[in-house]
Amino acid sequence: MDFNISVYGEIPLGDGWRLLITSTTISTWFAMVVLISLAVVVRIKVKNFTPVPVTRFQKVIEALVELFENFGKGTLSEKYHFTDLGSWFFGMFALIWTMNLSGLLGFRPATADVMTTAAFGISTFIILHYTWIKVRAPKGYIKDFMQPNPLFFPINLISEIALPVALSFRLFGNVLGGVIILGMVYGMFPVFMRLGIPAALHVYFDLFSGSLQAFIFTILSMTFIRSKLPD
Predict the structure, then answer these.
(1) Phi and psi (nearest 5°) for 50?
(2) In the 3-class helix/strand/coil scheme, how is the chain assigned residue by residue?
(3) What is the pLDDT of residues 44-66, one digit of tens each?
(4) Quick one: which of 11, 30, 76, 186 has the fewest CB in 10 Å?
(5) What value does the mean pLDDT take over residues 82-96?
(6) Residue with more model confidence, 72 or 127
């Protein structure tokens, strides 16, 4: 039972640099191919969309888009015109969700790699501070770090740095936990019994828990950003 990230090959880049092709890379490429393919299909079919949806495909696509638009309006104040970030977080949710679901096909989810979840956490961190500075201006932004007293500046700074770390490790820990449990279960059963209990656990960890973790990560990111916007 090896829970480490597997290396399947490498691409030399010169000067001693190389690009490793790992299980994380393959899972990420899989998610990208699925989402890009879906985007192409939607782009082709969108010209046939009607003002009142009549096909199931259009209903599903519009429901997903409206869901995150409403989350953007409900979570990110329309007063500051940041509701368009709902589109960004829709893409983030779709990518995390697809990565998590890749476990159903035998891939090691890319979100079980802390480097992947750290990238998502850092992106939220950058957007949070961009919106914070844009609303409060540099002077107000720095002043907020001094609240309620300038002596609290180091604590407030550490708190902000800890945010992307907490976000990334939360997603990473939950997904990796599922990978470890599934690996242990596979190791307990002989080959001919691996289509029963392990398959059912895949439905829970990859489908149910994977969808839930993608949703929670996205909502937490939006909530943290909203917390920095004045009422």
Answers:
(1) -110, 155
(2) CCCCCCEEEEEEEECCEEEEEEHHHHHHHHHHHHHHHHHHHHHHHHHHCCCCCCCHHHHHHHHHHHHHHHHHHHHCCHHHCCCCHHHHHHHHHHHHHHHHHHHHHCCCCHHHCHHHHHHHHHHHHHHHHHHHHHHHHHHHHHHHCCCCCHHHHHHHHHHHHHHHHHHHHHHHHHHHHHHHHHHHHHHHCCHHHCCCHHHHHHHHHHHHHHHHHHHHHHHHHHHHHHHCCCC
(3) 888 888 888 778 888 888 888 88
(4) 11
(5) 83
(6) 127
